[in-house]
Amino acid sequence: MTSIYHADVIGSLLRPSYLSGAQAALAAGRISAHDFKAIEDRAVDQAIAMQEGCGLDVVTDGELRRFSFLDHLLGDVDGFIPEPGATIIFRGPDGVWEWAPPVTVASKISARRKITAEEFAYARGRARAEVKVTLISPLVLYTAWNPDVSGAAYADAYELFADAAAIIRDEIAELARLGCRYVQIDSPDLGTLVDPENRALREGLGMPTERTLTEGIEILNSIAEVPGVTFGLHLCKGNNQSMWIATGGYDFIAEAVFGGLSNFDVFLLEYDDERSGGFEPLAKVPDDKAVVLGLITSKTNDIESVPDVVARVNDAAKYIDLERLGVSTQCGFAPVSVGANHITEETQQRKLELVGEVASEIW
After folding, report:
1. Which of 34, 300, 308, 311 has its C-alpha lying 20 to 30 A from 87's C-alpha?
2. Given this model, what pLDDT does residue 264 score?
3. Helix (H/G/I), strand (E/B), else coil: 283
4. Greatest CA span in the chain, whole angstroms?
5. What is the pLDDT of residue 239?
């Protein structure tokens, strides 16, 4: 069985106001790139220190150097045109929000640079805990696929996914060369397949669900072939401004995902509310894989209690060995710099402290 970090973290953190202000000043030409980098470094330093102070076994740089968690496929890759992609519907307590990526694939994609090398090299020099780097699933490019436009470059979307996988695998190989030992792939593409509405969206774009859960999973599995790296997969159901995309348990995808992604070591699952379904699908996780339970929500200021979270971990342990479990927040706190969840920095820290406290009590 792979080693597991019992107190884990998903990735993005709230941008402090001084960092957001500096980003605006840089865009307006009021400060130099050199001065901005010093401010950005300060924010990363504070993010790492905060996470370590919360008792986490793993830290990230908070994705503070990115505009969004999609940057390395939508922000630093050529092959796109500025035309909106597929419309995704987010839902929340206050209603719905329609979002579409600002770009569509129009030619063969290629990376301009490796964005995570700087992130990891800097964070490694500042952190005492293990540093995890987050990347995105190649299948998430379904949102940037338009058969009428993209078909000129790719016969179908799965050829696009394969090229995206090669870009990500190359990025991870460089991370491994720099000493990175833990990479998390964020997968809202698979996570949202639990919802019939999202399956129908993909089907309408010419992506049969059965093909996604076979060929698509094989493509995703291929990026985790880099030796010496622990690979985690975060099955995300959507996260922006405290809203979500999908509702449903993991039953529909459990066998294909847990069984098919043989190169992955850890599955990080969202389990923060009734939208998540039950723990029964955990019984289908192979014996050599670990699971991190996202039991603490990143979407609201409500603070869970240690006894309640401990009880839920023990409920999950009815289906999978307790020693193969860890705990984390359900998702990141700000996957997009302008799409932070409706939560305070104080609550963010308290929730991460709760992760450490629960892990310490159980393990």
Report:
1. 300
2. 98
3. helix
4. 57
5. 75
Residues 161/139, Cβ–Cβ less than 8 Å? yes
Q: Which domains does the chain have, with CATH numbers?
A: 17-362 (3.20.20.210)
Query: What size, in residues, is the chain?
Result: 363
Report which DSSP code applies to 35: H
Gap between the Cα atoms of 356 and 129, Å rounded: 13
- Dist CA 323 CA 359 (whole Å): 11
Paired tokens of 20: 């957001």
Specify the pLDDT at position 3. Answer: 63
pLDDT tops 90 at residue 115: no
Amino acid at 12: S
Other CB atoms within 10 A of residue 314 CB = 12
Residue of 154, 75, 77 whose CA lies nearest to 112: 77
- The whole-model pTM stands at 0.94
Q: What is the pLDDT of residue 74?
A: 66
Range from 98-107, 111-120, 203-212, 332-341 that averages highest in pLDDT: 203-212
User: 177 by DSSP, 3-state: which?
Assistant: helix
**Who contacts 49 (Cβ-Cβ below 8 Å, separation ≥6)?**
none
What tokens were used for 80? 């796109």
CA–CA gap between residue 295 and residue 310 (Å, rounded): 10
